[in-house]
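Sequence dictates fold. Below is an illustrative record:

_____
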Amino acid sequence: MDETPEDLATLQQLLDRSDRLAGPHLREVITADRRLTAEVLVGRLSGMCLLALATVTSDHRPLVGPVDGFFHRGSFHFGSSTDSVRFSHIRRGSHVSATFLPGEELAVTVHGRAAPIDVGSGEQAGFRRTLLDYYVPRFGPSWEDFLDSGEGVYARIDADRMFTFHLDPNTS
């Protein structure tokens, strides 16, 4: 967990604000006992989290596809190829939505804007380490060369809203 106390406080404020702004139906589904706190959420989002990420086409159609997501410092981050359709959408309009849904007992949905980041900058050293810790054991040391090649691009989702849903499988 790389989140600072300030990151957790900011994340908790986002979760609370999102709950207050949710519509009636969503609040019926995501009751107080089904919401996760920032601290619990961060504990549940370690490692790579496969996200269904939606971008918007030039003619305003949603387009969704899977991306490797990482929750770092209170925000989802994801990557793709510099020439991907996904990032062409983001360069034109940064609105995105993403959902992490490993099963019916947990869901995390975020709506916001994708902010491209430079994983080579000192400011992103912690996120770079997160990527290396995940990918190098899987693909070998040459993955760091790929990361440095500029063939991939990464973004952070600056969330306007984030909703969590947790259903304890041991309760009815």
In short: The longest strand covers residues 152-166. The chain has a mean pLDDT of 94. The chain is about 35% helix and 35% strand. The radius of gyration is 16 Å.
